[in-house]
Amino acid sequence: MDMETIRELQAYGYIFFTIFLAVILYSYLYHLYRSEKSGERNFEKYADMALRDDVTDAPIEPMSPLNKAKD
Amino acid sequence: MQANNALNYDYSVAKCFTYATILFGIIGMLIGVVIAYQLAFPELNYLAGEYGTYSRLRPLHTSGVIFGFLLSGIFATWYYVGQRVLKVSMAESPFLMILGRVHFWLYMILMIIAVVTLFLGIGTSKEYAELEWPLDIAVVVVWVIWGLSIFGLIGIRREKTLYISMWYYIATFLGVAMLYLFNNMEVPTYFVSGYGKWYHSVSMYAGTNDAMVQWWYGHNAVAFVFTVPIIAMIYYFLPKESGQPVFSYKLSLLSFWGLMFVYLWAGGHHLLYSTVPDWVQTMGSIFSIILILPSWGSAINMLLTMKGQWGQLKSNPLVKFMVLASTFYMLSTLEGPIQAIKSVNALAHFTDWIPGHVHDGTLGWVGFMTMAALFHMAPRMYKRELYSKKLMESQFWIQTTGIVMYFSSMWIAGITQGMMWRATDQYGNLAYSFIDTVTVLIPYYALRATGGLLYLIGFFMFTYNMYKTMTASKAIASEPQNASPMAA
User: Fold this and answer.
1) Considering the entire predicted model, what is its pTM?
2) Residues B79, B100: Cα–Cα separation, whole Å
3) Is the pLDDT of residue A70 over 70?
4) Per the CB < 8 Å rule, is A46 touching B161?
5) Which of the listed residues B233, B375, B402, B454 has the most CB atoms within 10 Å of its CB?
């Protein structure tokens, strides 16, 4: 393969990769907002994990019932 | 696993690492000040024979502050924050308690041997990766134990979702593991060829490849030791101390993934205008600039967490330490990308502007955040109020002055140096010889060293305040919810 073809392939690879990554990033952002809007998940409540962190505080989102039974 | 009133978080391992943080902070920063004065006053190189020369002490300074002070700080905060955000006490698992103690003592033994070997001049000559292969193996063992400790605690947690700080601690563990293994691939010369001492080795990579691996490691050591775990700290300690939830949890998640992806590709900026392929240089440059986004994402998230609560800056010096840390994070994550632009780098490369940049990040962001974290932990770990608010305030201003002196002198020195190296006369001959630049820079070196000295004095004030808090401060009846109690 000559140098020019390699360079051309590099350039196509570069542009597709950049677009692909930008799509991933924005999809993640969309996913965060969509799942919050649809009521599937409230991400902001997780911020309370730092504030309500005493060992006796109720977990923000407890583990499975199995773990709960242990408490 | 019983969650009754008798159950408390166990801070014994966190306390051990707190002492180690203070000890290595003093050693690492003291050596830093000595070598800074050596640059200004070269006679100081001959105070202790071969053991006191700049070249012998410099790796001790960098290893002392990175792997001694900071890693201990990371471990101390991990053994504190980990339990709290997972809502599980280490005391609930005898295995994790033993593991934590083994982690601490192995780490201490390793660090002591590391200090001795570096003083003796035994090292690989790879920057920030000077330890010889037997010690590298010990580092891996210590790291694996820390990993078992992290994932062990996660395994018995009550809180289902991992708080954002946990993500960053896990990233620190995985990132450093990967970097350390690849960069320290070395060939023990004695066993392969019969040359050198049994502990000597050479890198497995040669020439340009070695440089690329080294700076992929070197820059990501900045990422996964100076940045990622410090973000883990600030995401816990600033909200907790101020009583304010993180401004946007979603932004914290987005910034996390942004940082994870972008940082790993930026190391090539250390090798601009060198023999590495041009595309590696361009990639390093571009990714460094993109890095502003996730870095500022976290920093702005922290500043916005204080929205409507700026009065706390006046009333609580710990909040002040953390807000300034976040601000320095913004400053250094803007300065770094600027230096990575090829045309700027043509001037800045190899000059004192680079250590200037490193130190406004490490002193302002890393140092301030680590000390603030330990200050926050102290009343909870020792059940006593912080010894002196006044001392803390004075420490803040002395150290801030020190940092400003440090980076401003290095900015001027670096740009002067870069301009003088490039200057030519009308025939295209270099206008200055190297020694001309050295002579011009001496006053700035003296200023820088004095800035460092102020920071060290502040660190002694921190040490004294912590010591008095542990031993002589007023006991508190119950654990404070938010603002740490402190005597005037």
Assistant:
1) 0.94
2) 8
3) no
4) yes
5) B233
